[in-house]
Amino acid sequence: MAWAGVWLCMCVGVSVSVHLILGVPPQHRGWLRLWEEGEGCGECERERCPLAPSNCPAGQVQDSCGCCEQCGNVEGQQCDPDGAQLFYGRCGEGLVCQRRTRRGRRGRRRGEPEPKCVCEAQGSVCGSDGRTYPNLCQLREAASRKGTTLRLTGQGPCYSAPRISRAPRDLSNYTGNDIVFGCEVSAFPLPNLSWRKKGSDNFLPGDDPHISVQTPPSLSSSQARGGPQRYTVSTWLQIQNLHLSDAGIYSCISHNALGETSASARLTVLRQGVFTIGFFTPPICLYIRAEGSERPSE
């Protein structure tokens, strides 16, 4: 009888601890769900349900028994697609569980498709904070994590003046070498981009054959491609076979109907030369450099 009493206490302790742990994030509850499958659902007594977290990024959903509330899985999180198993959990508000094929580096399928939560409402949206979100689900998730009242103000991206998200950096190199300045801008409508050297009213590259500019063709008269994210534009300024006269300050200029912005970086060009001192055996070669934008006078 003593052993029976000890075993009963252990079982009760395990059951209580499992229910208390249901407040952990859904991705950590799979094994706990399997542990409790043998118990069955029984009659729903909501007063005995564990307190559901109040800050669920994807809202609350009912548990497998349709009785207690728990956090729903967020976008991109694994889920149970058909309800046949209860391991990963259910998707939250506005999300559906879909199987998506995993692909390797060369585009080949990799094993069985993984079930993940996907937002039903696809397409960018504008939040009341003035930021553009990939979809409505991510806007809701951001509102929950920030603990703020974030509202949908419109479908599609937020209208905004250009903002430099990656400014060009100061560079230093020797004559005869090549350099590349990079610049990335976020805005909607997408902005026009251009480069200019301080002291000149002309936009680059002009008619200089050793300078080239790459920028999306639909946005300016130059050549181009879009940025790594939606509603961003990337541009590059390349100078080949550097001359001392290339030294100076270069500006990335961006504008749309809502405003204009720019960012600048300095290019320092160093003179490179080799002098041989012949009275040593073997001769000694000295490498020297000189800074400047003008050729030294003799």
Task: Tell me what you see in this structure.
The protein has 298 residues and is mostly beta strands. The chain has 3 domains: 24-37 and 49-119, Omega-AgatoxinV (Irregular), CATH 4.10.40; 123-158, Wheat Germ Agglutinin (Isolectin 2), domain 1 (2-Layer Sandwich), CATH 3.30.60; 162-269, Immunoglobulins (Immunoglobulin-like), CATH 2.60.40.10. Helices cover 13% and strands 36% of the residues. It is built from 3 helices and 16 strands. Strands 9, 11, 14, 15 and 16 form a 5-stranded mixed β-sheet that branches. A 4-stranded antiparallel β-sheet has the order 8-10-13-12, with no helix packed on it. Strands 6-5-7 form a 3-stranded antiparallel β-sheet. β15 (259-277) and β16 form a beta hairpin. The radius of gyration is 31 Å and the shape is elongated. It starts with a helix and ends in a 7-residue tail after the last strand.
Give the tags:
single chain, mainly beta, Omega-AgatoxinV, Wheat Germ Agglutinin (Isolectin 2), domain 1, 3 domains, 4-stranded antiparallel beta sheet, 16 strands
Overall pLDDT: 78
Total number of helical segments? Answer: 3
> How many structural domains are formed by the residues?
3
CATH class of the largest domain: Mainly Beta
The total beta strand count reads: 16
Structural class: mainly beta
Residues in helix, %: 10-25%
N-to-C series of helices and strands: HHEEEEEEHEEEEEEEEEE
CATH third-tier fold name of the largest domain: Immunoglobulin-like
**Could you give the distance between the termini?**
109 Å
Supply Rg.
31 Å
**Share of residues in strands:** 35-45%
Low-confidence stretches: 1-24, 218-228
The name of the CATH architecture of the largest domain is Sandwich
Major sheet details: 5 strands, mixed
CATH-defined superfamily of the largest domain: Immunoglobulins
Globally, the shape reads elongated
